[in-house]
Amino acid sequence: MKRSCTFSLPVAVVASAIAYIYISTVFIYIDRWFGLMSSPGIMNAAVFTAVALMCIFNYAVAIATDPGRVPVSFAPDIEDAESSIHEIKRKVLLVGSLTIDDQNDEQESGGSSRTAYVISGLLLIPLSVALSILLGWHIYLTLRNKTTIEYHEGVRALWLAEKGGDVYRHPYDLGAYENLTSVRTLLHPLLFICQ
Q1: Are residues 47 and 97 in the same domain?
Q2: Could you tell me the residue range of the domain that residue 60 belongs to?
Q3: What is the average per-residue pLDDT within 78-86?
Q4: One domain, residues 95 and 167
Q5: Could you give the number of structural domains in the chain?
Q6: Angle between helical axes of 111-144 and 148-164 (0-180°, round to 10)
Q7: Same-domain check for residues 49 and 109
Q8: Angle at 28 between CA 22 and CA 19, to 5 degrees
Q9: 75, part of any domain
Q10: Backbone phi, then psi, for 159, in 5-degree steps?
Q11: Any stretches that span the bilayer, and where are they (predicted)?
């Protein structure tokens, strides 16, 4: 299956945002804080360049990869509610962090730096809103013990069940507390390794 390469406005906006953030970070912020010819400046610029290249690579792979389809013959496994062994699906939570600059930097900066701060703020506000919505969506999925594909298949199954006069219940939903406990149990060994 060949995909045609056509212009896409959302892809162009994301690529422009990555380019702007890279250029402003390296050539304005890192240059002003450390100097690009100093050892810390070169190290920070190299690390940020590697991170930016990974972002571009991962975004390109995400765009080019077909998400796949759920097979027509798929039927979820029904587990015994009494059993303590349940399949835990992967949950991905994306958390971003922001740094806040001192007000002294703002007073020392010229007009071009203020422009960079304003544009960076204009990029970060929608990004923060989008990530907050994504965080809320994943909290909802975690509380229901579902993946995104299971959610969409559940909407279809709910519609079919209501059409047939039945009641549909997601087979892996153990209740909010048990769902959170199972995710915590899954993440506990990972947290131990990171310490």
Answers
A1: no
A2: 1-67
A3: 48
A4: yes
A5: 2
A6: 50
A7: no
A8: 20
A9: no
A10: -65, -45
A11: 7-30, 42-61, 116-140
Residue environment code for 28-41, b if the CB has 16+ CB neighbours within 10 A, otherwise e: bbbbeebeeeeeeb
Secondary structure letter of residue 172 according to DSSP: T
Q: What is the pLDDT of residue 127?
A: 80
Co-location of 167 and 109 in the same domain: yes
d(CA 126, CA 115): 18
> What does the pLDDT look like over 90-101, one tens digit per residue?
333 333 333 344
- What is the DSSP code string of 53-100? HHHHHHHHHHHHS------TT--PPPPPTT-S----------------
> Which DSSP symbol is given to 28?
I
Cα-Cα end-to-end distance for the chain: 45
Burial of 168 (0-12, 13-18, 19+ CB in 10 A): middle
Enter the tokens of residue 187.
């993440």
Residues 112 and 48 in one domain: no
Give residue for tokens 């709910």: 158
Structure tokens at 44: 């920070």
Q: Which domain-ending residue is among 14, 34, 67?
A: 67
Write out the two tokens for 34: 């450390």
Angle between helices 39-64 and 9-24 (to 10 degrees): 170
More confident residue, 103 or 147: 147
Residue 24 confidence (pLDDT) above 80: yes
